[in-house]
Write a structure and sequence with these properties.
Length: 95
């Protein structure tokens, strides 16, 4: 199983890197992730935002019950989940 603080930097679209990183963290394959990423976040919009955004950009969302951060340089981070991640109003992806 991978480190929950993993940072994956690849020359893939950020949306693909998110799927690969989350699958790795959950010790599964990208094809086994349900629901697929596109049911939580628009992958094309995410990729476009990162391509056109500043390096200071930070997009945060939850996928598969995990917090995900995508930075302006395309880096994907899976910070450790905290108890408060699902307690905020409007939090999505919480089981």
């Amino acid at each position: 199983m991978s480190d929950p603080h993993s940072k994956i930097t690849e020359r893939r679209p950020p949306s693909e890197t998110v799927v690969r990183a989350v699958a790795s963290a959950l010790d599964t394959t990208p094809l086994d992730l349900r629901p697929p990423l596109y049911e939580r976040v628009d992958p094309e919009a995410l990729d476009s935002l990162v391509r056109s955004g500043s390096r200071d950009l930070r997009v945060r969302f939850r996928y598969q019950g995990r917090p995900v951060v995508v930075t302006g340089d395309g880096r994907v981070e899976l910070p450790a989940a905290t108890e408060n991640d699902c307690s905020s109003e409007g939090a999505t992806g919480c089981e």
